[in-house]
Structures are given as structure tokens and as C-alpha cells.
Amino acid sequence: MARVNENYSNLKQSYLFKDIATKVAAYKKANPDKKVISLGIGDVTLPLPEKVVEALKEASDEMGKADTFRGYAPDQGYDFLREKISEHYRKRNVNVDISEIFVSDGAKSDVGNITEIFSRDNMVMIPDPVYPVYMDTNVMDGRKIIFADANKENNFLAMPDGRHADMIYLCSPNNPCGSVYSKEQLRKWVDYALDNKAVILFDAAYEAFITNDTLPRSIFEIEGAEKCAIEFCSFSKLAGFTGTRCAYTVIKKDLMLERFSLHDMWVRRQSTKLNGVSYVIQRAAEAVFTDEGMEQCKKNIKYYLDNAKLISALLKEKGIYHTGGTNSPYIWMNCPSNMKSWEFFDLLLNKTSVVGTPGSGFGMNGEGYFRLTSFGSRDNTIEAVERIRRVL
Amino acid sequence: MARVNENYSNLKQSYLFKDIATKVAAYKKANPDKKVISLGIGDVTLPLPEKVVEALKEASDEMGKADTFRGYAPDQGYDFLREKISEHYRKRNVNVDISEIFVSDGAKSDVGNITEIFSRDNMVMIPDPVYPVYMDTNVMDGRKIIFADANKENNFLAMPDGRHADMIYLCSPNNPCGSVYSKEQLRKWVDYALDNKAVILFDAAYEAFITNDTLPRSIFEIEGAEKCAIEFCSFSKLAGFTGTRCAYTVIKKDLMLERFSLHDMWVRRQSTKLNGVSYVIQRAAEAVFTDEGMEQCKKNIKYYLDNAKLISALLKEKGIYHTGGTNSPYIWMNCPSNMKSWEFFDLLLNKTSVVGTPGSGFGMNGEGYFRLTSFGSRDNTIEAVERIRRVL
Q1: Do B50 and A60 make contact, defined as CB atoms within 8 angstroms?
Q2: Are residues B119 and B137 in the same domain?
Q3: Of the candidates B64, B182, B161, B29, which has an alpha carbon nearest to the alpha carbon of residue A243?
Q4: Are residues B169 and B270 in the same domain?
């Protein structure tokens, strides 16, 4: 008889956002007059830039006419888009050939699917706390996982600790901690990977939030990374594409494991299991790189960063330890008075009608911490900050 | 050190479409004055229905405004679309709850990714000839594969032959053979699957081409299939979405392997590795189900089917055995004069400047056969038929 992939039995059910929703719903029911403000979600709220909408509509018209209609797209993405992405890298002095760029429907898909080209015998290292997808996708494959501690001592930036791993997940700017690796820190990870013949899976989904020019926005800014790293990037946070779906993954041709080219394996994986990304969406993504499009994207990101600043300023004023809040849409704060994550969640909800995310939901080291996001409206963020001030 | 998934070494490089492209390019170079007509591609050519383009543009406008902007879509797809799909099934007396429908970016993605929820120890059965993705995705996972013969004796509809398998791929209307299972034939497969506790992976991507009402368009028209089958369906051929990307997979809640619900496992897989499908694309897909949208789709499908009829009529006239040509966009023909597939390819190209696909590229049983498609323009199809007539 057919059998299932029994590794799925080892997945922990994540009740984090479900539990939050349940608590919020109960609170709203009991307090119908209270205005609840959510700083919990990791989703953008500002509309798509005008240039992007224009491009979407133009491409839609093209698809409605016989002479401009397009069928299957190239598996790796249209050259018109990959050239813009390559140029985007070049502006930061990173050389990425268009053949090394793989356009997809989302960084989450790529981060999830990439494990397929690796042996199930590899040892995986994941920072704790962490974006849950890194862990779950490897549990599904039955790989052994070890955790690299991120905590107050290293400002929630996990560093190599002498233990060996074959695949290492790094996320910078970090979700959920908002912390960003410096070039020196990434240099250590690249050296570690080269020494251990390991591969770094680098999630750069939030790179557009980096405003400090000395911080690396791509792991390929570090020499040697082309031989040991895969980078995942996305239009979701850069251009508000969470509901529009476009991303890209970079695998340099230099990335070899013995005789195997990971680039070529990923070409084979994608051409076998993907039929390219929607033409209209690729045109929308291309429009992000026009002067007008990029200006609008930067304006939106500044809006979120200014929200983050407001939250961060309050925490500084109150002397509360936190990471993020600059170069990131996330603020990762120590709960006041040694409260546990869910305790603080309850306090915040009940006393201020503000919703955040308990840090314990992201891993053991998240206990006692709390995530706030800057994706709310300005008015709501200002109001939330004033309300939170009262309980700190 | 990190190791790769070495199963990839067992993949055969598919040179089929590359070899075709090379031969065609050489021919064009040597014969710059000849007009080459391709009946080789499996890609639609008619533009998107007007209603679909309208919906795309309206949704694009919504995404550009603060009060109608949408972020992350629900993992399984918006209800507005899943309700329409459920209704689409209901019209054929098939009961599919919206919770059993999973919207995705493509049937190829789903057919490829579905293997993840199955044990690598399962025995896979694949018809020969076959759409190459079924085989490659299982080779990547290291599963053992046996082939079910499709040939002239069974009119290129593989049937159970007594051998055991755990996972069975069926494609009806078939790519590349254009053959369509009857209800009685599918009944045999469903009985076989129930007896063997096997799961049928049913690719219904071409169901919209079925005009004969006695033929099943969904495996769920067969009683018991809800307990042993997963169905993959797509907007690609129904509505010309090959370059727009939207599809859906149905897993009924009745489908259990011992204590494991495949439905719940797929929920987990998709919510871990997918962030939903673009809002604008889901609105476009919804528009397919408007009266006007569906009428336009049917008109387009009739256009292709009429092309197929022209090709089929020629083969009948010449007494050449073939399958497909009705209820399918494909015509699968026996090469004349006992020619091998590539021999006939060369003859057709050199004598008539018409390009088709050698059947041997789809499997051992494809040798001596040839695939023609109906996705060309009417004028080109008429001209190609006249040219082919001269060499038959």
C-alpha cells in the first residue's frame, strides 16, 4: 500500500498566529467599544506604486491581443526582468549574471523548495529564534537540525560556535529580530562555510530596509560567498508584492559541491516543477526598477521605517533593550519586568488594545521577547506608541 | 561537507525540444525562403478572453489604492475563486467542498510538488508514453518506477495489468496521445487503486477539450475516487493561462492512508512552502467563470478543436492510425511507411517545412509515432495539412 512521508509526523503544529487570533477575537467580543490596533502582522499595507499598477495594466492589455499575447514564460524568468535585477546588484558592486538569477513566485517557495537539491543526510543549522519555514521544510525532509543561539549577548545575531553543519540558514535583516549582520560578521559565516564545505542559505527578503550603507544587503558583497551561498530575495517587502508574488533566487555558477553544480541542479529542479512566473507580474516587477517606481518604493519603505523609529524611540526612552527598528521593519523588544512573552501579550492586549507577537513563538530564545512591526498606518502607530507608553 | 541529492544523477537529460530547435534552426538557415509552420508546441496561442483582461486590470487598480490593496492571500486561495471552482464541479454533479480545493500557480508545480507528501519507498506506475514531469519528479526522489504500456492494442490508454503500484499517474485527455479514458476504464483504475491501497494522481489539465458528454472530465465522476485520487487541473488550457499562471488541485478529505490525511498533509505543505497566488491572477481566473468569460473560453477551445479536426480528417482520409484529434488538442499518429519518429520528423521538415514532435521523445512506446498539435492558427493549420498531404 502507498505510504506517506512520515517525517510530517515530526512537525510541530504552530498555533502561534491562531492563538493570537483567538485571543484577539475574544477580547474584541468582550470589548466591542475598544479600537484594537495590530502591530503583529508581517505584511505590508501601502498600495502598489503607480508605475507598477500601470505596468500590470499594460501587460494585461498585451495578453488580450493576438499579436502581443504570451504563452509559457522562460523557466528562469524573462530576460527583461533578470537584466534589471542584475543591474540592481551591479549598483552595489555585486556581479550577478542573468543566467544566475531565477525568478519565482515567492522567496517562501524558493526557500522551501531549495532543500530538494540537497541530501537528506546533511546537518542543518538554524538560528533560534527563527522564521519557522527554515525548520519545518527540513523536518519534512527528515534532516537533523541544530540551533545557533541568537540572544542578548550577540544582539540576536547568531554566530558560528565551532559546531559543524552542512546547510546554514541566515536571515538579515532578521525576521523576527530586526537585527542586521555587518560585513565582518558575514565574513565569519562565509569563512565558516568555506572551511566546513557548507552552504549558506541567505534570506535577504528585507534587504530594501537597509539604509546604512556600510551594512551588506547581499551576501555576495562578501568575497568567497559565490562559492558557498545561495541568496533569496523578493519584491514583497521592496515593493509591497506580498499579494502580487514575485521573487528571485541567485545561485552563482561557482557554487559546486564536489562535481555537482548547484546552479545546474536548480535549473533542472525549476524547469521540471515550475512553468515560469506570470508575464504580467514580471512586467510589474520590472517597473519597480524604473526611476519613478524605485522612488515610490523607497518612499513607502521610509514610511515604514519612520513608524519603526517611533516605536524604537519609546523603547529607548524607557530604557528597554531591543534590536531592529532601524534597517528593518521589525522591533524585537525585551518584555518589561521580566514578563514572559505571552504575559506581555495579554497585558498589552488587555490594557492598551494593542496586538503584537510573542517572541516565544519563534523559538526557545524568543521567550521573554516580543515582536512589533512597523507595517501599520502612521496614525495607528502613533496611537499605539502612546498607549504602550502608559504600561511600560 | 554538504552533499547534494544524488538522485539527480539518475535523471536523463531530455534533449527532445532542444534537438528539435537545433534541427529547425539549421533548416531555416539553409532555407531562408521557406515558411516553417510549427505544429510542435503544446502552448496556446489565442489571447486571453476580454473578461479576463478586464478583471486583471480592475484588480490591478484595486492593488494601487490604499482601501482596496491586498497583502498576503490565503494559502489555499481566495474563497471567491474556490467557490467558482466548486460550482464548476457541481455542474458535472461532482461535489467538491471549497476546503478541498487548493489554488496554485500551475498544475506543473502541483504535480511536481505532490510527491513530497509521499514516502520515497512507494512504487510508482507511469504510462509510457508520458508527459516527462511524472517520471523526472520521481527520479529526483529516488522512487522505483514501472511503466504501464500504452500502445495500439489499448488505443494508447494504459490499463491495470496485474502488477502492483502505490502511486499511479494518469493523464486524460492524454498528453502526448490525445486519448481519453471512458468512465468504464477509469472505473477499473479506481477499483485497482482501492484494491492496492494506491493513490491515483490524475492530471486533468486538458479536461476542457472534452466535448463528448459521456466521457469523464474529472476522476471524481467515478465513485470511490474520493478515497484514492488527487486531481490536478489548470486554467492553462481552459482559458489560455499558460503565461498567466493559475491552477488548482483537489484532495478530498476522504483520502486517507492509514491514519494520515493527505488533505491535511497538503495543507501543511502548501502553507509552509507557498504564500498563495497573486490576487490579480485569482481575479482573472474568477472571470473565466462568468458567462461571458466561459463563452469566450469555449469559443477558443472550439477553434483549436476545429484545427485538430482538419488534421484528423487528413489522417483518416489516408488511412493512418492515430489517437486524439477529438476531445483533445493533440493528434498522435503512426508514422507512415513504418518510419521511425525522427525519420518522419526529418522528412516532414525537409519536404514540407512543417515541425512536429517525435513520439520517441515521450517514451519507448512512442517510437514510430508522432505528435501534432492544434494550437497553430487556422491558416497555418490548413496550409500545414495541405503540405503534409503531399508526403503521406
Answers
A1: no
A2: yes
A3: B64
A4: yes
Of the residues B164, B195, B272, the best mutation for testing chain A's interface (the one with the most A CB atoms within 10 Å of its CB) is B272
Last residue of a domain, one of A263, A289, A315: A289
- Dihedral angle, C-alpha B171, B177, B178, B184, nearest 10 °: -60
| Cell (9 digits) for B141 | 526522489
**pLDDT tens digits for A376-392?**
999 999 999 999 999 99
* Domain assignment present for B89: yes
Asked if B61 and A70 come within 8 Å (Cβ–Cβ), the reply is: no
Q: How far apart are CA A357 and CA A341, in angstroms?
A: 8
Q: How many domains does chain B have?
A: 2
Calpha distance B381→B368 (Å, rounded): 23
Q: Are A167 and A126 in contact (CB under 8 A)?
A: no
Q: Which of A264, A289, A314 is the last residue of a domain?
A: A289
CATH number of the domain that residue A351 is part of: 3.90.1150.10
What are the residues facing A370 on neighbouring strands? A333, A358
The chain-wide mean pLDDT, for chain B, equals 97
DSSP H or E run through A189: helix A183-196
Residue B153 domain-assigned (yes or no) = yes
pLDDT band for position A126 (cuts 50, 70, 90):
very high
**Contact at 8 Å (CB) between A124 and B148?**
no
Q: Could you tell me the three cell numbers for B297?
A: 473560453
CA distance A350 to A353: 6
CA distance A267 to A278: 18
- B59: part of which helix (H) or strand (E)? helix B50-63
Maximum distance among all Cα pairs of chain B, rounded to whole angstroms:
67
Same domain, B212 and B298: no
Cα atoms in the 13 Å half-sphere on the side-chain side of A340: 5
Chain A's closest residue to B112, CA to CA, is A273
For residue B40, what is the DSSP state?
-
Verify cis geometry, omega within 30 degrees of 0, for the bond prior to B176.
Answer: yes
Closest partner CB to B245 (pick from A52, A167, A278):
A278
Task: Note whether A221 and A120 are same-domain residues.
Answer: yes
Query: Is A12 an 8 Å CB contact of chain B?
Result: no
Asked, for residue A8, whether it belongs to a domain, the answer is no
- In angstroms, the CA A169 to CA A140 distance is 16
Q: CA–CA separation, A283 vs A302, rounded Å?
A: 24
Give the pLDDT confidence score for residue A42 in this predicted structure: 86
pLDDT in tens, B86-141: 999 999 999 999 999 999 999 999 999 999 999 999 999 999 998 889 999 999 99
ipTM associated with this complex: 0.96
Cell matching residue A20: 493570537
| pLDDT for residue B16 | 86
Quote the distance between the C-alpha of residue B386 and its chain's center: 28
Task: Count the neighbouring beta carbons within 10 Å of the beta carbon of residue B213.
Answer: 7
- Say which DSSP state B4 is in: B
Residue B219 above 90 pLDDT? Answer: yes
Residues 6+ apart with CB under 8 A from B228: B190, B193, B194, B198, B199, B200, B255
DSSP bridge pairs for B232: B203, B249
Range of the structural domain that residue A30 is part of: 15-44+292-391
The rounded radius of gyration (Å) of the Cα atoms in chain A is 21
Secondary structure (3-state) at A385: helix
Q: What is the pLDDT of residues B254-301, one digit of tens each?
A: 999 999 999 999 999 999 999 999 999 999 999 999 999 999 999 999
Q: Answer yes or no: do B119 and B134 share one domain.
A: yes
- Name the residue in chain B with its Cα closest to that of A61: B53
For residues A327-336, give the mean pLDDT.
98
| pLDDT of A265 strictly over 80 | yes
Q: Are residues B302 and B321 in the same domain?
A: yes
> How far apart are the C-alpha atoms of B131 and B136, rounded to whole Å?
10
Closest partner residue to B277 (CB to CB) among A52, A116, A245 is: A245
Q: Residue A248 gets which letter from DSSP?
A: E
